[in-house]
Amino acid sequence: MTISLRQRLSAYVILGILALLIVIPLIAGALTAFKPQIIWVSSPPIWIFQPTLENFEFVFIQRQNLLHLRNSLIIATGSVTIALILGVPAAYALARFRFRGSKGLLQWLISLRMIPPIVVALPFYVLFQTFDLRGTHFGLILAYLTFLIPLVIWMMRGYFVEIPSAMEESAMVEGYSRLQALRKVVLPVVTPGIIATALLNFIFAWNEYFLALILGGRDTSTLPVAAATYVGRARVEWGNLFAVNLIIMLPVIILTIILRRQLVKGLALGLVE
Amino acid sequence: MTASTEVKPVATGAGAFRRWLYRMSQKYVHWFFIAPALIAVLVVAIYPIVYSTGLSFFRVTFDSRERPFVLFENFAWVLSDPDYRVVFGNTLLYVFVTVSGAFVLGFGAALLLRRITAGRNWLRLILLLPLTIAPIVVGLTWNWMLDPLFGLINWILTGLGLPPQTWLASTSTARIAVMLVDIWQWYPLIFLIMDAGLSGLPRAPYESARLEGASEWTIFRRITLPLLRPVILVALLLRTVDAFRTFDLVRVMTDGGPAYTTETLSLYLYRTAFNFNKLSRAGAGSMIMLLVIGIISALMFRYLYRDVERR
Amino acid sequence: MKVVLQDLVKQYPSSSSVAVNHVNLTIDNGELAVFLGPSGCGKTTTMRIIAGLETPDSGHVFIGERDVTDLASKDRRVAMVFQNFSMYPSMTVYENIAFPLQVLKLSKDEIDRQVKEAAGLVGVGHLLQRSSRQVSGGEAQRVALARSMVRRPEVFLMDEPLSSLDAKLRIQLRMEIKRLHQETGTTVIFVTHDQEEAMSLGDKIVVMDHGNVQQVGTPQEVFFNPRNVFVANFVGTPTMNMFDGTIKPNGGGLCVDLAGIELKLPDRFPGAGPGMPVTWGVRPESVKIADEGQPGDVPGTIELIEALGSRQQVFVRAGDKLFSAMIDALHPVRVGERVHLRFDHRGTHLFNAQTGLSLAEQH
Q1: A171 in a domain, yes or no?
Q2: Residue A34 lies in a domain
């Protein structure tokens, strides 16, 4: 197809505007995190100023957001680790073995992705009271498994399917058991996939708000829950709010840059390609 | 070598047990790998849903000792609640506007990306960002952008000679503002899916169509769209299901207000349960929601599979 | 080692047809046996059962004196080379060849010695430090061969190991496998759908279709004495000319009536009797083209000529039938020419049309 200069130029202009519309709010917000209190809000906006870290200091010490950061890390890491331990073997089996109902099982697992969180949040709330899990890290980790396990299984299955089954079969003929073959031969090959899956799942758990709001207690609030409380105040501390926002955003942006190829696959549930 | 092979081996004692063990391990090896995840899913997803279904047939509040069986009372209450109908309507409108908006913008951007060469990967990366940033962060950032006094948006509007707006506080603009932010966050998903779909298209049909002198519009309608149908359906399905349960964004931007204009189903059910202490009513409501989502995705899935099988 | 398959049956749960249907087979010690058949004929499944990668529904596998049916792959002392996999991507050539030895807990020096020996035998001794990405497809398959050899298995199993390579390399590696087999004297079972490969490699050819063994024999036997219509059709390129007809009495002997063409039958077919519906066949190599007719010749017109280097394949129309003949390239023919077809009786075949079985004397 020959594309005329005008077509190409208009594409550049439109896409450029779309990109700016995404980048500007993010940058403007991030800058505010470094602004001294007197210029948190200003019209016209101030772009050049002497950056300060006092907002971060304030949120960590006065607002106890360090605790929330810790909670977020514990819950996200914990839930992703458990989801991987449970999900990776299942993904392997669903990629390798064809048995009665294997296709249905896979579709069913994917369809769990469609459940609205409110549907599980309510019973979890009641059950957590019974089992004394409300306001514990473990409770939230458990709740996060609801959406993390299906995601891990779906993503990892894609990676296993790409590895010829002859690889572990070869090792099995050469004197290794299936588990040894998996560890020595398949695992090294699939490790990048596991890392990508882990990081994407980490992003989901890290960003989660709804379940954390309902099932988390005062001591287990995560960063998104803490961030949301800033707008409830009579006077919004914008600089402090954006400091928290930036702490939530920054690791995710870094992971996004690292993972950009695999992300599309994970976000689209691997249904494309 | 003796002809040991003509003798059918007779399994005895330990040998027989070992044989049996081997057979079983070969036959059920997949369950060894699947069972842990399956049990976990049953515990963390299926059990709560079943429990919640049960819950919605009783009258349950947080402090209630007794939980009388009330059959469909909760369902009847939810369905007859005028607020519920308003909220349901809101949600449908929200889903329709944000999904179609995201689709048009995302698909359009993906098509435009075909026309350019330099900077493609940069654009893909930038468009990934809204997807991976927490909806909470997005909502809070846009609260600040839309602030009537110092927000960047109003500053630009006044710069253009337009009157400033109280975006999130006025009944006429709050809904549109929240929906626009939702589109801002999620059209990149459609973009990325369609971009992947477009990249995967075969070249031969295009080349032959061009040789036959078909116009670009005809090519798009007759070749691109049919080939992309499954991809489009997947994108729409994912987006619809997610839009249906929107909570985070609305919660931090307007919290349902002003005057319930932005209240979504998730927010309403959250409030019913946790602000008004009507746990089992919220349970009944969430079951209805699950049913609606189930029907929507089943229909789309069926459409999708029929499509895939026809190929 | 001798390999014996006793009444093997395997059906996959997802499939309605039987993958392996009551297969009985003996492969003698030191033999190179080739499983030949179209895709889906059960040859690979049979091999995977021998390797222990599939469990049969019933039946037994013996390697030497051992019943290995319920033994894990790792304990069967077999080696396998695969079609779509050759090297562990996370290891170098050296590490690949050493991999099967590591589980044996040998000393480092011993492993080193054996790796170098095996690598030398298949000609990858100079590539030992290369990673899997730095070797070509042919080299990778040689590494797989070396890896299969180091454990000194009792049986080599090769599942279409050459089919992903290009033609030239395929022939070269085929010769080397034959040489390695002759040098080591170990039993080899080789699966292929390529009959030329089967013919050139095998001491014994096992032709399979639909999970059944159709014929077991030397390459000559399956080519010259196909036991049934399937084998006759599948083995040999170009394919045999085959037509349906009926047996009729003719003077003292019998003839076959191919609806319009009557051919005298030699007395090699004791199974044939008058009135019997049959399938008659002749290999293109046994069809001669003559300018002058003799009694018994079939007249026809040349319709198409395909040059194939030293030979040419000539298609001759006789009535409603099209015969193909393989003749010397120097024989002058042209399209439209009237010619006479003469069949070499040693190259003709006769099958019962109902059972598909050969009516020739069986040896």
Answers
A1: yes
A2: no
- At which residue do the structure tokens 């497809």 appear? C137
Examine residue B43 and state whether it is found in any structural domain, yes or no: no
| Residue B1 pLDDT exceeds 70 | no
Between chain B and chain C, the number of residue pairs with CB atoms below 8 A apart is 24
Q: State both tokens at B156.
A: 């630009």
Are the beta carbons of B60 and B279 closer than 8 angstroms? Answer: yes
Nearest to C327 by CA among C291, C280, C281: C291
End-to-end CA distance of chain B: 57
Residue B282 domain-assigned?
no
Q: Which residues are within 8 A (CB) of A83 and not within 5 positions of it... i.e. 6 or more apart?
A: A144, A145, A148, A149, A151, A152, A201
Instruction: Point out the residue among A112, A207, A214 whose CB comes nearest to the CB of B134.
Output: A207
- For chain A, give the secondary structure using H, E and C: CCCCHHHHHHHHHHHHHHHHHHHHHHHHHHHHCCCCHHHCCCCCCCCCCCCCCHHHHHHHHCCCHHHHHHHHHHHHHHHHHHHHHHHHHHHHHHHHCCCCCHHHHHHHHHHHHHCCHHHHHHHHHHHHHHCCCCCCHHHHHHHHHHHHHHHHHHHHHHHHHCCCCHHHHHHHHCCCCHHHHHHHHHHHHHHHHHHHHHHHHHHHHHHCCHHHHHHCCHHHCCHHHHHHHHHHCCCCCHHHHHHHHHHHHHHHHHHHHHHHHHHHHHHCCCCCC
Q: What is the pLDDT of residue C346?
A: 84
- Can you give the pLDDT at residue B163? 85
Q: Do C103 and A164 touch (CB under 8 A)?
A: no
Spatial contact of A149 and B41, defined as CB atoms under 8 Å apart: yes
Minimum distance, in Å, between the CA of residue C73 and any CA atom of chain A: 5
Residue A75 to residues A135, A143, B178, C355, C360, Cα–Cα distance (Å): 12, 10, 29, 70, 78
CATH number at residue B134: 1.10.3720.10
Number of domains composing chain A: 1
Q: Are C58 and C7 in contact (CB under 8 A)?
A: yes
Complex-level ipTM: 0.90
Beta strand pairing status for C58-63 and C66-67? antiparallel
Q: Which domains does chain C have, with CATH numbers?
A: 3-234 (3.40.50.300), 241-352 (2.40.50.140)
Report the pLDDT averaged over residues A249-257. Answer: 93
Structural domain includes residue A169: yes
- Give the domain CATH number at A77: 1.10.3720.10
Buried b (16+ CB within 10 A) or exposed e, C279-316: bbbbbbebbbbeeeeeeebbebebeeeeeeeebbbbbb
User: Per the structure block, which two tokens stand in for B129?
Assistant: 């960002």
Picking from C12, C103, C144, the nearest residue to A175 by CB comes out as C103
DSSP code for B10? P
Reply yes or no on whether the pLDDT at B2 is more than 80. no
User: pLDDT digit string (tens) for B30-47?
Assistant: 999 999 999 999 999 999
Residues of the domain holding A263: 66-267
Q: Are B189 and B240 in contact (CB under 8 A)?
A: no
- Tell me the C-alpha distance between B68 and C304, whole Å: 90
Instruction: Kindly state whether residue A50 falls inside one of the protein's structural domains.
Output: no
Q: How many domains are there within chain B?
A: 1
What's the mean pLDDT when you consider all of chain C? 92
Of all residues in chain A, the one with the smallest CA distance to B304 is A271
Is B185 domain-assigned?
A: yes
Q: Angle A65-96/A137-161 helices, nearest 10 degrees?
A: 40
| Cα–Cα distance, A181 to A176 (Å, whole number) | 6
Range of the domain at B107: 90-228
Best of B29, B33, B218 to substitute, by most chain A Cβ atoms within 10 angstroms, is: B33
Q: Which of C84, C85, C99 sits opposite A174 (nearest CB)?
A: C99
pLDDT tens column, C148-165: 999 899 999 999 999 888
Is residue B2 included in any domain, yes or no? no
